[in-house]
Amino acid sequence: MFDWLIVGAGFAGSVLAERIASQRGESVLLIDRRSHIGGNAYDCYNEAGILIHRYGPHIFHTNAQSIVDYLSQFTAWHPYEHRVLAFVDGKLLPIPINLDTINRLYGLELSSAELEEFFASRRETVEKIHTAEDVVVSTVGRELYEKFFRGYTRKQWGVDPSQLSKSVTARVPTRTNRDDRYFGDSFQQMPASGYTRMFERMLDHPNVKIMLQTDYREVRERIPFRRLIYTGPIDEFFDWKLGRLPYRSLRFEHVTLDCEQFQPVAVVNYPQTEAYTRITEYKHLTGQRNVRTSLTYEYPTDIGDPYYPVPRPENEALYKQYEALSANCPGVWFVGRLATYRYYNMDQVVGQALATFARIQKTIPASDRAPQSALAMPV
């Protein structure tokens, strides 16, 4: 009999497994369908000895010092500020759109103040912003929307931005200065030894048992447990009884080239051309030195593992029905991107997991077993 069964060994499940094991002294069985821990953040060394992210680039950034402090128990950090270029009209231009983007695109020499006037002259008036398209055209106008956003979004989500929630493009800012960082967060660093090593340290506790290549639906009646934390797709938990929630997936093409560097930054987006959305070159992220370089090409698809909830009103309405069902499941906690049908960043998932643990602490008395001490900062 395990005190807890946790389904999914990504950030949500692993953080909760560590907290329950170390702070409550309770037994945890952590299971995952895949052959590894770490979820989509899993990284590994390929045949060339280059550390790659199997499921596309994962860039850690946050404004929450509490989340940094928590994860720093299990990893040292490598400073990295993410920069992205977009291949538009045959040029590599900074994205999010900033002063340099516009000046280089149009051959201008605008100042920051003049750029604001430039945007103001091109914005479209939108009475009420509902969609991803509304967000962009009301900020920078139709032409820049077509060049930088529409094609990329259609490839990524499989539908036009006019059919997607405003949250999709609201995540990407527009700047009038020359700041070319993709994120503006106060903390932007990568786990120094990689994400997988961080997860290994997090789960290195005698109260945590791990079963990989294990499907919850196949073991839920066979393994005794007192309480359940579920981080998989919420519609699958309920055997799709209300219908399937749409998710977007990705197909990855990993290649290694006999050159030291392929592109000037870690990620280049392709909003106008190519079937793929972006190319990632990992050595930029890790600072690793190697005479060869490894890349990943990303192809969005509807087929495969669920990655992104599709933000449309009808999908949110269906999720709300599943959420109502989950409220009638005592002893089950739904956590993470798939279980709550939200497009969370990694730090947001960690924050949600830590908040869930705080609620568990308040509502469920801990067992009599003394908690183990937290892991020390690795060297």
Automatic annotation (TrEMBL):
Database matches in Gene3D superfamilies: NAD(P)-binding Rossmann-like Domain (3.40.50.720)
GO cellular component term of the entry, any: cytosol
Enzyme class, spelled out: isomerase
Pfam families: GLF, NAD_binding_8
Domain UDP-galactopyranose mutase C-terminal: 147-343
Transmembrane is among the record's keywords: no
EC number assigned by the record: 5.4.99.9
Family: Belongs to the UDP-galactopyranose/dTDP-fucopyranose mutase family.
PANTHER family in UniProt: UDP-GALACTOPYRANOSE MUTASE
Protein's UniProt name: Putative UDP-galactopyranose mutase
